[in-house]
């Protein structure tokens, strides 16, 4: 408004503005300082009539500003306003997600966290059958319209530890932090101005921040989850009416019929519940991938474009960058002694308890290799021996991505930098160093990268199914935390925080769970396999330097055994064009391949697991030099659309796709194609694996499937 145009007949600007519109309660705010005017809830015709008044300078429609988590929604493109291919706006999808319920199978929940605040949320969906259970330190009244369920299933654990001194807290309460962290990543309410000791400062919010949450406690501690309890929790969640199951748990790979998560997830899928699972943290070891059933979304971990920078300044004036979260007393600019692997104990390089000699490390910065015990615990070993700082070397990776909340001044570096620092300590007659901390840095390049800990393929159970399916943000993720345990999870750590930064495929999994919730809101009639396909076929594998996504272990290009179909791209996933919609019957034909005693429903089964209508390909050449698979695509994009295929094949494989063009006249129409893979590898070659892509595309959509080829 031109505020100087206020008629004298109106005592205040508010009175004047009120006179311009017909409904007395339409005005929401009157602005008088940074902006002169008002906000009102108006129909389009009334807004247009205002535009024609002389004193009105401008009229514009309000827009949604998505809160920034601390970083991952922005990195995923979920903080911006964008449109779907059917004309809807993303804000409509976010609003609709308040009817979607995510069940988190984990270590419970810290219900008092502001991440579970229900202000502004409508009533709980009437279809919800779940409940809140009271228990020690947990009152069922802690549940609300955001956290709509909290149960615990710990009978197997109680039975296992009966007779011991410690059974654990039998209630929905999270004493570990892991369950609270995962739940808030998936669907936590926006919480402004949060950080961990000033690191990652911003607004923390879940991916689907309007969705509902239900917590199912099946673990007493991160490493204490019983399969029977897990399955009981999954069964309850299915009966309660969840739409998405988020399971950041892992065990050793097993045949599907021996795996409680695989078994429970198959039933969940038949009830149209999407199941997201963690790929495991045993990387970069080959075939370390877990949770590999084809009816679950197996999620690996990648980085985002944010670092928590620290540095080591050496006596030769070289400065090396690393990572750390540290809020204690700083070392200052004075250089002190630097020591690595000195003394009689052959394990002193790992800084295990009792391996450091105080006479050699007192008052010095100690170089420690990862392994044996946790990194924060190594810092305590150094401190007890008299050390004043630690340089932590990840000898597995070229650079260090993960930061931990240290109790001693610590800088974590990768192998490349670590080797240079070790060489300086070894060759300089008086090696010295000091450590410093630069805080949070964003727009880091290259990003994303595959995390070193993220478990890798090939699939050890069914190698004809490519796993992981996808990677998502899983490095240095800030989210809600239990106030019953310190940020390092060590008993000696008495710091209390409301938000914590941790890394793992456990953090990547709920990101995809949240994305699935948004997709459920956008496409309520889609099957779990259609949602999964959309997420996979729209993922990307090019980083922010326009290069192929790198593996932090090698610093060079990664491959589908590490990232599956690529890094998740929710904007594209909401409008995929085509999907591989796998039927329940096909999953049953796959399942029956592995049953020792097939039941009557197993009258038909695949001859090859790779026959499943899956969005990726894993080809095994053995006795056969030719492998042929068929796939079926369903049109969820535009009518009268045509797609052409592009094949990127390794030189050692001939790939033929028939037909090369698919024409869809209507939405929901299905078309099949066949791919023939022919082995061209030289018999003398030692090549064990190669990778490629099959991409169906037109001007609007790109539907990509990775191909992994393996020779015995």
From TrEMBL:
Residues 98-545 form the Peptidase S8/S53 domain. GO terms for molecular function: serine-type endopeptidase activity. InterPro entries: PA_domain, Peptidase_S8/S53_dom, Peptidase_S8/S53_dom_sf, Peptidase_S8_His-AS, Peptidase_S8_Ser-AS, Peptidase_S8_subtilisin-rel, Peptidases_S8_3, S8pro/Inhibitor_I9. SUPFAM superfamilies: Protease propeptides/inhibitors, Subtilisin-like. The active site is at 106 (charge relay system), 178 (charge relay system), 506 (charge relay system). It holds the Pfam family Inhibitor_I9. GO terms for cellular component: apoplast. Residues 611-709 form the Subtilisin-like protease fibronectin type-III domain. One of its GO terms (biological process) is proteolysis. Residues 4-67 form the Inhibitor I9 domain. Coiled coil: none annotated. Its main location: secreted. It is found in: Secreted, Extracellular space, Apoplast. PROSITE patterns: SUBTILASE (PS51892), SUBTILASE_HIS (PS00137), SUBTILASE_SER (PS00138). It comes from the Eukaryota. Keywords: Apoplast, Hydrolase, Protease, Secreted, Serine protease, Signal. Gene3D superfamilies: 2.60.40.2310, 3.50.30.30, Peptidase S8 propeptide/proteinase inhibitor I9, Peptidase S8/S53 domain. Residues 347-420 form the PA domain. The keyword Nucleotidyltransferase does not apply. Required for arbuscular mycorrhiza (AM) development during AM symbiosis with AM fungi (e.g. Glomeromycota intraradices). Belongs to the peptidase S8 family. This is Subtilisin-like protease. It comes from Hevea brasiliensis.
